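Recall the central idea of this unit: under ordinary conditions, the amino acid sequence of a chain determines the structure it adopts. In this exercise we apply that idea directly, starting from the sequence alone.
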Amino acid sequence: MFGFLNLNKPMGFTSHDCVARVRRILRLKRVGHAGTLDPAATGVLPIALGKATRLLQFLPSKKAYQARIRFGVTTTTDDLEGEILTHQSIPDLNLEQIQAILPQFMGKIQQIPPLYSAIHVQGKRLYDLARKGETIDVPSRTVEIFDLKILNWYPGEFPELEIAIACGSGTYIRSIARDLGTQLNTGGTLAHLIRTESSGFTLENSITLETLETQVQQQIFSPQSPNQALNHLTTIILTPEFAKRWCQGQPILGDFSIIDDHPVSVYDSDHQLLGIGKLIKTSDQILLAPQVVLVENY
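Accordingly, the structure predicted from this sequence is:
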């Protein structure tokens, strides 16, 4: 089995739980996912099957979310799963105040990940250090927010903002909720999160674990082609002679008119995906060097 599964992750499951469940349903050892999604969140979790696990690093990085942020509350985890740190009624907060500061969260910004997150600090995952009660200086990092769109506003003692967020990889929506509350001097935490897009896969085309199981039982499940997942890459098509040499790990000298610093997808003349390559410019020629070879016996 070779390709991708656009999974709609259920609430309460870790990304690892989903991979384990897919392994059992498909009876497949090689399964991986693109982009960890918190257990409390739902939505798009791209799953790679078989050799497609080698392609995960080449998927597009853009992600999109629909988030609901609650003001007047802060927690240890920056969402409602954690212990409450502060809890104050703020019925006077209005949407105009939020609209005034939202531009600060656009573009490339510095963001400190939540204490309870899966990133590594000092060789250990942050959530392991936090659970031990260790004091951690979490370094900030640059993330990119492409778009912020207000969807709904719910006034009250603990008002809530529903917002659509398009961003680059590595962005924590929990941190946006926390920092938005900090800027307003009200405190804020993430109340609900749905990932609507990830690595080129969208929520509209996703399926649940239950649907996957039914499709497998009815023998109608078919993974999505890697061609669709890689359509953002420049495509190189090789003749049979060059394709054989490339699959043997040899760089190909050719008349490549496109110079691309990014990886390129490599196909043979029958449109079979051979793998991922890199165009390398020397003093007087251009080489197509293999990065990932999927067809070894061409």
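The chain has a mean pLDDT of 91.
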